[in-house]
Amino acid sequence: MTEAEESVKPAPDVAALEQEGEIAADYVEGLLDIADIDGDIDMDVEGDRAVVSVVGIKGSDLVGPGGEVLEALQELTRLAVHRQTGERSRLMLDVGGYRERRRAELTKIGAAAADDVKRSGEPKALQAMTPFERKIVHDAVAAAGLRSESEGEEPRRFVVVLPA
Q1: What is the pTM of this model?
Q2: Edge-to-edge strands of the sheet including 147-151?
Q3: Least buried of 53, 89, 93, 142, by fewest C-beta within 10 Å?
């Protein structure tokens, strides 16, 4: 395969992603029923992944400290999708808009770290983050014109912002 062929990503299979979303929504709805938690389910396809959101929910029990419960629920939901489709899922689960708020917070953290590195000329290591969180920080650092790398081993993998 040529380099040009490798760099071309196939278009996402929207029908398959919608099916993932349906399976995930049914699974999450079942969990909400078992836990006797009221909430509505929204489904969408963003880029190359299905997104299922629980909206209209009160409290943060399904998010947990630092999003730990949400990450666990997302993994369980991905497993449920995999069990039915036989395909690995990149589905994203959100509860009460947590991921959108976290995305805005992490974008600010990445931009601030990039500013610090530009001023000091020294690399800056950030706290440990999930892959979702690291991706957002890497994007914010790149938007600020700098480079960043992930270092360490899961679950303590972190971003290091590097000078230009």
Answers
A1: 0.81
A2: 124-128, 158-162, 147-151
A3: 142
